[in-house]
Please model this.
Amino acid sequence: MQGFDYAVLAGKLAADVGEAAKNAASATGEAAKTAANATGQAALAPAVTPVLDLLKKSEGEVKAGNLAAAVASMGGFQALWNTAAPIIQPLAGDKWPLINTAANLVLSTFAKGATPTAANAGSAISGLIGPLSALLTK
Model:
């Protein structure tokens, strides 16, 4: 076999192996991102769902004209939010500032001694339902 260049063959094999390694690393990185996202989503649901349940219950009470029942229900929001927020914050990413602002509006609207109107109560509640619901559908 005249002219067979083993060095050229070795170079081509090394390039192919290098490309395969780069592709494998890229696929591994994507798999890790997907797994992290799935884990984050799994952690979000148990934190977000009880908050959403309370908000939706209270929203229904406001819409039904029973503001007093909504205010009474929302009396438990502070404790629920104090538990959920530390879990939600790192997983919400760039959506956290909006969620935090909406939660603070809910907290101030339903603070002890506050007397919200039905419009204020409904607006504060729906303002937090939207971004929290969106977290669960990412």
Remarks:
- The CA atoms of residues 67 and 117 lie 8 Å apart.
- Helices lie at 6-63, 67-73, 77-92, 96-109, 118-136.
